[in-house]
Amino acid sequence: MDRRHFLQTSLLATPSALALGQRTEHRAESFSRPLPSAIAALKNRKDEAVPITLAEREARFETARRLMNEEKIDAILLAGGTSLVYFTGMRLGNSERMFCFVIPQKGDAFVVCPAFEKDRMMERMNLLPGGATIRIYTWQEHESPYALVRKGLADGGVDSGTLGIEEKTPFVYANEIAKACGNLHVVDATPVIAGCRMIKSPAELALMKLACSVTLQVYEAVWKSAHPGLTTAQFSELCDAAYRHVGFPGDTSCQTGIYSALPHGSVTPQVIKENDIVLIDDGCMVEGYVSDLSRTFVYGKPTDRMLRVFDVVHQAQAAALAAAKPGVECQAVDAAARKVITDAGFGPDYKTFTHRVGHGIGMDGHEWTYLVRGNTTKLRQGMTFSDEPGIYLKGEFGVRLEDDMAITEHGAEMMTPTSASLTQPFSS
């Protein structure tokens, strides 16, 4: 299971997430005791995380309503997932039983849920924006919930118009809602939802910076604790143990040698060897917000070719950071990094730098918008991205340097110190 799926399932706290948590705990417990001193010395940092407040979620409702007005959307519908968490704080997954939360442009929000879940929903009302006025529509097991969406909208005065559905809503929900609401035009709600979520508040940025700080601290502790002869799986197990010490769920992929040339790794069992490249990736979650960091290093002496590739990737990462300013198109950031790599002889195009330079990040590891050719979206203050150029030489090794950055009033800032070298990856 890859880290992105891990973080999503951990957030939603579904049965599969609970099972994964048990497996992760077992991995950490089974590595060895006592733990290496650098990991054992880590302190729990949960108290540093300040949750998103109800007042901030209320402001998100108002922003969504403003965007709905601009986009001529009369209501948006959220099923389980990170967008539901973003607006309401409710961490719910999706199943064959539909649950949804509907925010109209005007009037009160409403919920459609199974009848046996009503009491559980009532417990949460005072924690939701406008909780006292939220309507709850329930359905019994033999009934269809989809007509209740139409009824809830009609009761709120939306008899016709446009209903936006969050993009990750299961097809069966969206399809049946569209059929039940034949009087409404059903569209993608992304312009509203992404319009809200792409711009991070100071509270969101603080959580993301904490997640990045925690991940870098874990990486450094494990780097100090590991050594040639360990398997990559054992390296990941040490990371599991370190994340347990700092108090946040996280995951780490580790690739070495020729397998580091595969950007998302290999399932092939691997052993870390002296003088070989080691590439680690992924991150953790803090109050629903994630980090995504990569480090590349060598235990021993890198070759001249390794040093050369690292230097080029390091320059490309800096070029992307320098290019990222408010008003600049997303594609220009990718182009800046790609030019460095191509000019250094590792091009053209996607020959060795095989992926975009970055993705939006926040509550999802990958979210709107993307630093990629063809994306003319202009950067705005408060957007957050990964900055992760790489060079992957098939059959040899790969180097990727990844940090997360926030767009500021005048440019962009990294949330973590960048890597200095292949032998000292945690000194800037």
Automatic annotation (TrEMBL):
Residues 207-409 form the Peptidase M24 domain. Residues 60-199 form the Creatinase N-terminal domain. It comes from the Bacteria. Pfam families: Creatinase_N (PF01321), Peptidase_M24 (PF00557). This is Peptidase M24. It comes from Terriglobus saanensis (strain ATCC BAA-1853 / DSM 23119 / SP1PR4). The lineage of its organism: Bacteria, Pseudomonadati, Acidobacteriota, Terriglobia, Terriglobales.
